[in-house]
Design goal:
Length: 139
């Protein structure tokens, strides 16, 4: 039994451990080669894109469409879509285009529409008065 276990241990040391290391290394090599292939494909796509934009007319078209640049001596005019009535729609979200509010109907900032009830304890010293007001907050 002892010679069989010694032979098994020797086989494991000689064969099994190097094979698992080689197997893991081959997996890493395969993953790295897949990444290299992907990067080479991306590089070729970028080269193709750069060669298609390298002409003067393509550069001008790209500058006009994506960066709103114009040639020297030209001016840029942007026409925004309207609602067709000639007036700017109030749904644009720009508060400067909203109609004015009458001063009497406007509420002041920070003013609450609900009335609050506070009781002032003038007969108590300052600390106790503040303490009682703090406890009244939880009502």
């Amino acid at each position: 039994m002892l010679p069989l276990s010694i032979v098994t241990a020797a086989v494991m040391l000689a064969v099994w451990f190097p094979l698992t290391a080689l197997w893991h290394q081959q997996g890493e090599i395969d993953a790295t080669s897949a990444q290299i292939t992907s990067i080479a494909r991306q590089s070729q796509d970028l080269k193709d894109q750069a060669s298609s934009v390298s002409t003067k007319s393509a550069e001008e078209m790209l500058a006009r469409s994506q960066y709103q640049l114009v040639a020297p001596g030209q001016s840029l005019i942007q026409v925004l879509p309207g609602d067709g009535s000639g007036y700017v729609s109030s749904s644009t979200g720009d508060p400067g285009l909203q109609p004015l509010v009458a001063p009497l109907s406007a509420t002041t900032l920070g003013a609450s529409s609900t009335a609050t009830h506070k009781t002032v304890h003038t007969s108590l010293p300052k600390f106790l008065s503040r303490f009682v007001r703090t406890l009244e907050f939880w009502r």
